[in-house]
Amino acid sequence: MKLTRLPGQPFSSEFMDALATLRALPKIEVKVEPGAARTKPGTVDALIAKYKSSIEFIRARPNSQAQYQRMLDKLGAVFGNSLIAKFQRRHMQDLLDAEAETPTIAKRLLSMMRNLTRIALNEGWIKIDPIAGMVVKLPKSDGIMDWEEEEVAHYEASYPVGTMERLSEALMINIAARREDVIRMGPANIRNGNELRYKQIKTGEWVQIPLLPETRAALDAMPPNGHLVYLLNDDGCPFTEEGFGKWFAKRCRRIGLNRESGTGKKLSAHGLRKAACVRLAEAGCTDHEIMAVSGHLSLKEVARYTKGVRRKMLARSAMAKLQAHRAAQAQASQDDAEGA
Questions:
Q1: Within this chain, do residues 84 and 162 fall inside the same structural domain, yes or no?
Q2: How many CA atoms lie within 13 A of 201 on its CB side?
């Protein structure tokens, strides 16, 4: 900052007039990105600081921010002091190769680096995006594992009504809620004594669902806990989203629910949301009806959960038609033989 010497002796009329003139000038606010004072302009660290002050980062959900921060920390640890103008495609490829055993992480790192190079282009620090066109291919996934009815029955037999484990399961499988919504539900969400109304964290949409008798029973079996939410961790405090996911997974492993998919995914809290949608589909609900319960915003999202059920139901219908057709053919042949 450039300093300006004021004329005259301090507190003299000449000095005070000059000071008053300076104070009357309009103030200029300078936005400083978090960490900018500790970064060298043009480096990856400087880009990280700019990204963390962006609307995209600031308005992200807390769990998304935490995920973004982990990716930024990885990028900063490897490239932080490097000038983005000297960053080459091979540098990114080396990092992606190092994450070959965890392709999901590699894909997230590449996505985050794209955000940084976009800022660098806008700032004029680079003229060409060095990672344009780079991709990370993920192995084919079975998606979120939904629970079999036998597994649901085993869980409920292991954790009876009146336990926190049973209440958490009842809330998820009976209303198809996400874990970030379940941990925020409390008595204030109950309407007219028999409906639950809540605003989804992910979509911002309101969902109002009639309570099934088993859900009501699970709620009534729990004594007041002095908190605004129903679910509390082992320390008697409200859950964080990540903490709830880990807590629920441990409760599943404790009773032998260890089934996993070909890609290593195991039964989880989110799988109960999928199982709830499957139950609704098997009950004959339309995709629009399922959306009204789950809060999905598109039919495509619901179809990802229910396509297996729809295919199974169509196969049953097809085989029933085939059986009826063969029976009709056999009856026609018998009638012809008797007529002859």
A1: no
A2: 16
Q: How many domains does the chain have?
A: 2
Q: What is the rounded distance in angstroms from the CA atom of residue 46 to the CA atom of residue 51?
A: 9
Residues 178 and 260 in one domain: yes
C-alpha distances in Å from residue 53, one per residue of 46, 48, 86, 263:
11, 9, 24, 36
Which CATH number fits the domain that encloses residue 209?
A: 1.10.443.10
Cα separation, 143 vs 271, whole angstroms: 10
Hey, is 234 helix, strand or coil?
Answer: coil
d(CA 230, CA 251): 18
Contact, 180 vs 63, CB < 8 A? yes
Neighbours of 66 (CB within 10 A): 13
CB 122 within 8 A of CB 114: no
**Residues 93 and 43 reside in one and the same domain:** yes
Q: Token pair of 270, please?
A: 């989110």
Measure CA of the first residue to CA of the last residue in the chain; give whole Å: 112
The pLDDT tens digits for 255-301 are 999 888 766 778 889 889 989 998 999 888 998 999 999 988 888 88
- Name which of 9-23, 173-187, 235-249, 274-288 the model is least confident about: 9-23
Q: Is 83 exposed, middle or buried (0-12, 13-18, 19+ CB in 10 A)?
A: middle
Cβ atoms within 10 Å of 248's Cβ, excluding its own:
24
Q: Which residues pair with 208 in a beta bridge?
A: 197
Q: Whole domain around residue 170: which residue ranges?
A: 149-270
User: Is residue 278 assigned to a domain?
Assistant: no
Which residue, 229, 269, 225, is CA-closest to 250?
Answer: 269
Q: How far is CA 227 from the centre of its chain?
A: 25
Q: Which of 265, 232, 269, 241 is nearest to 152 (CA)?
A: 269
**Residues 117 and 168 both lie in one domain:** no
